[in-house]
Amino acid sequence: MRTATIHRNTKETQISVTVNLDGTGLAQVSTGIGFFDHMLESFAKHAMMDISVDTKGDLHIDMHHTVEDTGIVMGQAIKAALGDFAGIKRFGSAYVPMDETLSRACIDLANRPYLVWQVVFERPKVGDMDTELFKEWFHAFASHGGLCLHVETLYGQNTHHIIESCFKALARALRSAIEIDPRLGGGLASTKGVL
Asked: What EC number(s) has UniProt assigned to this enzyme (predicted)?
């Protein structure tokens, strides 16, 4: 089983994340931010990955540290569960429509972090959450997970739909990228011989 547990404790946040890359989409998520919990649960379901996320952050200040640090630890956990990335397909992409919205995510799991974020929100908040924090989560997740990640909303107006379609597209793309390719024989999908 490809699993990992990562803990991170700072003066701003205390976080524990466990992932099972070969799960069934089960999620136990508690960050103190309802809409964010909903997005992480949706991510787990569509990635077919079991996740447990327990985040206690300085929400009395704002949500920034809670969201960003959760992205850091989730990325670290997925990277740890992948080990040396041997045998995985490496690349993945997905389009996800939600009503009037269409978003796309493309991934290269090459241990060379990068984020391209082509997403615009109509509203500054969804529920109580600042929409600008979603880029922070995706950036932290990609940086600490070793992902080259491109996320784009091709069109859409509803902020909830835009955010959710981005999370689901990421999940579906990641699900494909971490899949074991038996033709690799446990080797790496790279001419360099290392990722």
From this structure: 4.2.1.19
Digit-coded pLDDT (tens) for 152-190: 999 999 999 999 999 999 999 999 999 999 999 888 888
Span between the terminal Cα atoms of the chain, in Å? 21
Instruction: Indicate the pTM of the whole model.
Output: 0.96
- As given in the structure block, the two tokens for residue 102 are 């269409």
- Report how far residue 20's alpha carbon sits from residue 41's, in angstroms, rounded to the nearest whole number: 14
pLDDT at 195 > cutoff 80: no
| pLDDT tens-place string over residues 19-41 | 999 999 999 999 999 999 999 99
